[in-house]
Specification:
heterotrimer, A alpha/beta (136), B alpha+beta (676), C alpha+beta (219), B: 676 residues, alpha+beta, Beta-Lactamase, 5 domains, 5-stranded antiparallel sheet, 21% strand, elongated, C: 219 residues, Chemotaxis protein chec
Chain lengths: 136, 676, 219
C-alpha cells in the first residue's frame, strides 16, 4: 500500500468528466489530496472528453455516470474499445447493484459519489497494476 | 417532568388507537404504548433498549430502519403504506388475524435530534372493505370481460391502453405479452376513425352505432372490427372502454362468395384455352421424345461399335488368315495328290468364313437404323450365336461362361435390340473387371409373383424369361444402383462412356413389356437381370438351310447369266452352277451383260451383282426387261442397306441374296426361282 | 417600503445546486430500489430559478392537462415547500412502474394515492436531506401529501404563505422497468431562504475548490 505522502516515481495524467463544475471540483479536491503533482484535465461532456483524450492522452479517466448526451456508461464502453489500457472509473451517487454491474461490464471501476480518498486511491493502485501487467 | 406527569403522559399514549414507538439515536426502543403491547405480543419492558431487529427477528425491516435513521440524521419524515409494503411489522389484531398497518416515522424535537417517533396506523378494516368491494365488483366484471370474445380495451386520456382483456391481447398483443402503456392508435390501421371514436367518447358524444375500424395484428394482417366506446371515471381519472367486435369472418365469407364467382368465370376461360394448346403440345413433345430416343439409341450403338471395332478387326484378320491358309494347304495337297487330307482344310476354311460372316452380320445389324420390330424368338439360340462375339469382346483375362436353361420359354422382342442389350451388358461387365474375372450369362424361366410386384410395383406379375449377366467386378454402391438406369449417368471416366447403355437396356426391357434390375455389392460384383415376358405363341419356322447332300440337278438347257465384276466371285458362282448342271454365261460389267441379253440367247436366270461399275445391276435388268419382260434375276449385294433399299422395288421375278452367302443357299435360291 | 433586492444565483451556484439535487435523486434511486426491486435511474438535468408564473407555464402548455403532485414542507435555516409533479396521466404509469404490471386497472387506481405518496416521499426526502447535509444544515421535513389539480393550485396553496416568487425548478427523468417518465421538481422558497441558500452554496463552492496544492497543468 502506497502511503498518502509517498511520492510516486511516475506522475499520471487524469481526465475528469462531469457536467457539474462543483462535481469536478469535488473530484479534483480528492485527487489533489492524494496526488497533488499529477496533472489533470477537465471536460464537461463526452465529446469534450474525447477531444481531450486525443490531444492530451490522459492515463486515467474519471467519468460521471449521469451526463447529458452520451452518458458515462456508454462512453466508458467506447473507451474500453479504443483505449483498452486507459484506466476508467465511473462515479455515481446511484450505487444500485445493477449500476455497479453495468459499470464493471463496460470495463470501468465503480466509485461512489461523493468520492472518498480511499476509493480513489484503491482505483489508482489497481489501475496502475493492470497497466503494468498489460504493458510489460 | 414529574413522575405524575410522566404517568399521565403514559396514560394518554396508551389511550391512542395506534402504535407509538420511540427510538433513541442508536435506534433502540426507548418505549412504546399499550397498543403496541397487544399488537406485537411483547410488553414494553421486553422491547425497551432493543433494536427492532432484535424484537422482531426475521421481519423485513430494511425500509423502516432506513426511515428511522433518516429521521434521526436529517429530520426527514417517512411514510410506509401497507398498500406498497404488505408486511412491515408482524402485528396481530385482537382476534389474532394479521393487523394491516401504515407506518409514519418522524424526528422528535429540535436539533440536535435525539429521538424519533414511529406511529403505526391500523388500516385492516379499511383495506378489507375495499378489497371485498373490489373483489365482488371484479368477479362480476371479470367474468364478463375475461371471457368475452370481443376485444375490450380501456384507454386513458392520453390514449394509452390501461387495460386489455384476453381476447384483445391474443388478437393484437405485441411482443412482451402486454398492451398496457401502448398508444392505442398504434394498434389500428384506420387511425383517423380510431381517433374520432376516442374523442367522441371522451366528449361523451358517442355515435350511437358501432364504427368500423381496421386493426393491425402483430403479423401485419388487418383485422376488421366494429367499435363502441363509453366514458367512465375512477377517482380523478377519466377512462374510455372500447368494445371491439370481430367482424372478420363475416367479411371473409362475403369476400369469398364474390371471389368464387370471379374465379369460376376465369377458370372456365382458362380451361378452354388450355385444351386447345394441350393437344398440340402433347404432339410436339411426343415427336421430340421419339427423336431423342432414336438419337440415344444410335449414339449408344456407336459407342458399342467403338468398343468392338478394335477387337473385331483383329479377329477378322485371323479369320481371313484361316481361310486363305486353309485354301493354300488345299492347293498344296491337291497338287501333291493327297486328296484325303483336303476335306479337313476345306472344313476349316468354311468354318472361318462362317464365323466371319456371322461377325459382319452382327456389325451390320448394329449400324442398321431399324425400328423396334418385335417378333417371337428363342433366346437361347440367339445368345449362343453371340457367344463367339462375346468371347472376343471379353478378351482373354475374363473367364466366360454361358448357362442356358433347358425348356426356356419363348419371348417376343426385337432380336437386334436384345443382342444389343446383351452386348452392352457384357461390355459393362468387362469394364468392371479391368484385372480380369469371371462373367456368366444365364438364361432361365422366371415367375414374378404378386409379392414381387408389391415390392416392384412397376412390373406386372407373370411369367418371364430372365437373362442375367453376372460379373465379379468392382460392384456398385446403392447410390450408383439407384441412378444406373438414368440416361447419361456413368461412373466411367470422361470420354470412355456415353452413359447411355444401361438406360437403353432399361428402355428396351420396358418397351418389350419386361423389366431390368441390378443387383450389386461393392467389391463383390454385379448381376444385371433382364426380364422379358413369356410369349405363348409359336414361332414361324425359319428357313432351314437345306442339307448338303441334296443335289439340285438342273434341267437341260437351263442357262444362267452371271454378271459380276469380281473375277474370283464370278468363277466361284460359275463353278457352282456348272456343278449343278446349268449352262452358264458370264459378263463382267453392264455393257457386256446387255450385249448378251440383247441377243436371242436363251437365258433362264440372271445372277447379278447390284454394285457394278457403270450401269448397276438394277439398271441392267430394267433395260433387259424391255425385250425380256419376264426375265428372272437374282441380285447379289454385299451391303445390307442397299438390300433394304432394293427390297423396296423388287418386282416379281426378282430376288436378292446377301453376300457372303453359302453356296448351298445360292443353289436353293436358284432352284426356287427357276421352279422345281 | 423598498422592494426586496432580488436574489440571483450565479451560474456556478446553479451548477452546484443542480449537482446537489442530482446527488439527492441518486440517493433516492437507491432507496426507491428497495421498494420497486428493480433498477431505477433518476436524473435532474438542470435546476433553474424562475418565477411562479414561469414555473406554471413550464408545467405544460396544454392547460387542460391535469397534474398530480406530492408535496412536503420543510423548515429550518431554509423553509419552503418541495413538490414532485407529474401529469395526471403519467401518474398511473408511474404507479405501474413502481408496483409492476400484474395488477388490474382497478387495483392500480386504488393504489395510486399510496404509491405516489411513498414515491414522492422517498425522492423529496432524499433531495432535501442531501441538500441540507451538503450545505451543513438540517431541515425538518413533513410527511407527504398528494394533490390533484392544476399547477396554479400547487404554487399558490396556503399555508404557509409565500410572499415571494422564487421557484427552484427542474425536470426530473424517471426510468424504471423499461418505462421512461418525465416529471418536475419544484421548490418554493421565501426570500430569506433563497438568500441563505445562496450563502450556503457559496460556502460549499469555496470548500470544494480548496485543494492541497496547485498542480501543474499540461495545456
Amino acid at each position: 500500500m502506497i502511503g498518502r505522502n509517498e511520492v510516486w516515481l511516475v506522475t499520471y495524467k487524469v481526465l475528469i468528466v462531469d457536467d457539474s463544475k462543483l462535481a469536478r471540483m469535488s473530484v479534483v479536491k480528492v485527487l489533489s489530496t492524494l496526488h497533488a503533482d499529477w496533472p489533470r484535465i477537465e471536460a464537461a461532456n463526452a465529446d469534450e472528453a474525447l477531444l481531450q483524450i486525443n490531444q492530451q492522452h490522459p492515463d486515467f479517466v474519471l467519468l460521471d455516470f449521469n451526463m447529458p448526451g452520451k452518458d458515462g456508461l456508454a462512453f466508458a464502453a467506447e473507451l474500453r474499445h479504443q483505449h483498452p489500457h486507459m484506466g476508467v472509473a465511473l462515479i455515481s451517487a446511484n450505487r444500485q447493484v445493477e449500476v455497479i454491474r453495468r459499470a464493471e461490464a463496460a470495463g470501468a471501476t465503480f466509485l461512489a459519489k461523493p468520492l472518498t480518498e480511499e476509493g480513489l486511491r484503491e482505483f489508482f493502485e489497481n489501475a496502475v497494476k493492470k497497466r503494468r501487467g498489460a504493458v510489460s | 417532568m414529574t413522575t405524575d406527569e410522566r404517568i399521565d403522559q403514559k396514560q394518554v399514549l396508551d389511550a391512542v388507537n395506534g402504535g407509538l414507538i420511540l427510538f433513541d439515536l442508536e435506534r433502540r426502543v426507548v418505549g412504546w404504548n399499550a397498543w403496541m403491547d397487544t399488537a406485537s405480543g411483547h410488553s414494553e419492558a421486553e422491547a425497551r433498549g432493543k433494536l427492532l431487529s432484535e424484537i422482531f427477528p426475521g421481519a423485513d425491516l430494511k425500509r423502516l430502519v432506513f426511515a428511522i435513521q433518516a429521521a434521526l440524521t436529517s429530520r426527514s419524515s417517512t411514510i410506509l403504506t401497507h398498500a406498497l409494503n404488505p408486511a412491515l411489522l408482524p402485528l396481530k389484531t385482537r382476534s389474532q388475524r394479521p393487523l394491516l398497518h401504515d407506518i409514519t416515522v418522524s424526528a422528535v424535537g429540535t436539533p440536535p435530534i435525539k429521538q424519533c417517533l414511529v406511529f403505526v396506523n391500523d388500516v385492516t378494516m379499511a383495506t378489507r372493505r375495499e378489497r371485498y368491494l373490489r373483489d365482488r365488483q371484479n368477479a362480476r366484471y371479470d367474468a364478463v370481460v375475461a371471457n368475452a370474445p370481443d376485444l375490450i380495451i380501456t384507454v386513458d386520456r392520453d390514449g394509452l391502453v390501461q387495460f386489455a382483456n384476453p381476447a384483445a391481447l391474443s388478437q393484437l398483443g405485441r411482443a412482451g405479452g402486454t398492451l398496457i402503456g401502448v398508444a392505442a392508435k398504434d394498434l389500428f390501421q384506420t387511425k383517423d376513425q380510431w381517433h374520432s371514436v376516442l374523442q367522441s367518447a371522451f366528449n361523451n358524444s358517442s355515435a350511437g352505432h358501432p364504427i368500423d375500424l381496421i386493426a393491425q395484428r402483430p403479423d401485419g394482417t388487418p383485422s376488421h372490427l366494429e367499435a363502441s366506446a363509453s366514458l367512465w371515471a375512477s377517482g380523478a381519472n377519466n377512462f374510455v372502454t372500447v368494445i371491439l367486435r370481430d367482424v372478420n369472418e363475416r367479411r371473409a365469407i362475403s369476400e369469398a362468395l364474390r371471389k368464387s364467382e370471379t374465379d369460376a368465370r376465369d377458370a372456365a376461360v382458362a380451361l378452354s384455352e388450355l385444351n386447345q394448346t394441350l393437344e398440340q403440345r402433347v404432339e410436339e413433345r411426343t415427336a421430340r421424345m421419339m427423336q431423342m430416343e432414336e438419337e440415344l439409341r444410335q449414339s449408344q450403338k456407336m459407342e458399342a461399335i467403338g468398343q468392338l471395332t478394335g477387337g473385331i478387326a483383329h479377329d477378322f484378320n485371323n479369320l481371313l488368315q484361316g481361310i486363305t491358309g486353309s485354301l493354300d494347304l488345299v492347293k498344296k495337297r491337291a497338287m501333291q495328290g493327297r486328296f484325303n487330307e483336303i476335306d479337313r482344310f476345306i472344313s476349316g476354311a468354311m468354318a472361318s468364313a462362317n464365323r466371319a460372316s456371322a461377325l459382319t452380320h452382327r456389325l451390320l445389324a448394329f449400324s442398321r437404323r431399324q425400328p423396334l420390330a418385335p417378333k417371337p424368338l428363342e433366346v437361347n439360340p440367339l445368345l449362343t450365336s453371340m457367344e463367339e462375339l462375346l468371347r472376343r469382346t471379353l478378351g482373354e483375362r475374363v473367364v466366360f461362361e454361358m448357362v442356358t436353361a433347358g425348356g426356356l420359354w419363348l419371348t417376343k422382342c426385337d432380336p437386334n435390340q436384345l443382342e444389343n442389350a446383351v452386348l452392352n451388358l457384357v461390355i459393362n461387365a468387362r469394364d468392371a473387371m479391368p484385372d480380369g474375372g469371371k462373367l456368366t450369362v444365364e438364361t432361365g424361366n422366371s415367375h414374378l409373383d404378386n409379392t414381387y410386384s408389391t415390392v416392384h410395383p412397376e412390373i406386372e406379375p407373370g411369367q418371364y424369361v430372365c437373362i442375367s449377366v453376372t460379373d465379379t467386378g468392382s460392384g456398385m454402391s446403392a447410390a450408383t444402383i439407384e441412378k444406373a438406369f438414368e440416361p447419361f449417368f456413368t461412373t466411367k471416366p470422361i470420354g470412355t462412356g456415353t452413359g447411355l447403355g444401361l438406360s437403353m437396356i432399361y428402355g428396351f426391357a420396358k418397351q418389350s413389356g419386361g423389366h431390368a434390375k441390378i443387383y450389386s455389392e461393392l467389391g463383390q460384383g454385379t448381376t444385371v437381370k433382364l426380364y422379358l415376358p413369356r410369349f405363348r405363341g409359336k414361332i414361324e419356322q425359319d428357313e432351314l438351310i437345306p442339307d448338303l447332300s441334296e443335289i439340285y440337278n438342273a434341267h437341260t438347257n437351263e442357262t444362267v447369266l452371271v454378271v459380276e465384276d469380281e473375277f474370283v466371285v464370278r468363277e466361284l458362282i460359275v463353278e457352282v452352277l456348272k456343278e449343278l448342271g446349268y449352262s452358264t454365261l458370264e459378263a463382267d460389267d453392264g455393257s457386256a451383260a446387255l450385249k448378251i441379253l440383247d441377243s436371242k440367247q436363251r437365258i433362264d436366270l440372271v445372277i447379278s451383282d447390284i454394285g457394278l461399275p457403270g450401269l448397276n445391276g438394277r439398271q441392267i435388268i430394267d433395260a433387259a426387261r424391255e425385250t425380256r419382260p419376264s426375265l428372272k434375276v437374282l441380285f447379289m449385294t454385299g451391303y445390307a442397306e442397299n438390300a433394304a433399299i432394293a427390297a423396296g422395288f423388287l418386282e416379281p421375278g426378282m430376288a436378292m441374296i446377301t453376300k457372303p452367302f453359302a453356296m448351298d443357299a445360292l443353289a436353293t435360291r436358284i432352284r426356287d426361282m427357276l421352279g422345281k | 417600503m423598498t422592494a426586496p433586492t432580488p436574489v440571483i444565483l450565479t451560474e456556478m451556484e446553479l451548477d452546484a445546486l443542480t449537482e446537489l439535487v442530482n446527488l439527492g435523486v441518486s440517493n433516492a434511486a437507491h432507496s426507491l430500489r428497495e421498494l420497486v426491486r428493480e433498477e431505477i435511474l433518476l436524473s435532474v438535468p438542470k435546476v433553474t430559478v424562475v418565477s411562479r408564473e414561469e414555473a406554471i407555464k413550464n408545467l405544460g402548455e396544454r392547460d387542460a392537462k391535469r397534474l398530480v403532485a406530492v408535496h412536503q414542507d420543510f423548515e429550518g435555516d431554509i423553509a419552503g415547500r418541495a413538490l414532485l409533479i407529474f401529469p395526471e396521466t403519467k401518474s398511473l404509469e408511474l404507479v405501474r412502474a413502481i408496483v409492476g404490471s400484474d395488477l388490474s386497472l382497478d387495483e392500480i387506481v386504488e393504489l395510486e394515492q399510496e404509491a405516489l405518496a411513498e414515491t414522492g416521499n422517498i425522492i423529496l426526502n432524499a433531495c432535501l436531506a442531501t441538500m441540507a447535509n451538503n450545505l451543513g444544515r438540517t431541515l425538518k421535513i413533513s410527511l407527504p401529501e398528494v394533490l390533484h389539480g392544476a399547477g396554479r393550485e400547487f404554487f399558490y396553496v396556503k399555508p404557509p404563505p409565500f410572499v415571494d416568487d422564487n421557484v427552484l425548478f427542474s425536470f426530473i427523468n424517471f426510468s424504471v422497468r423499461q418505462r421512461n417518465i418525465t416529471g418536475y421538481i419544484a421548490m418554493l422558497l421565501d426570500l430569506p431562504s433563497l438568500a441563505t441558500l445562496k450563502n450556503l452554496l457559496t460556502e460549499l463552492i469555496e470548500r470544494t475548490s480548496q485543494t492541497a496544492a496547485v498542480p501543474p497543468n499540461d495545456n
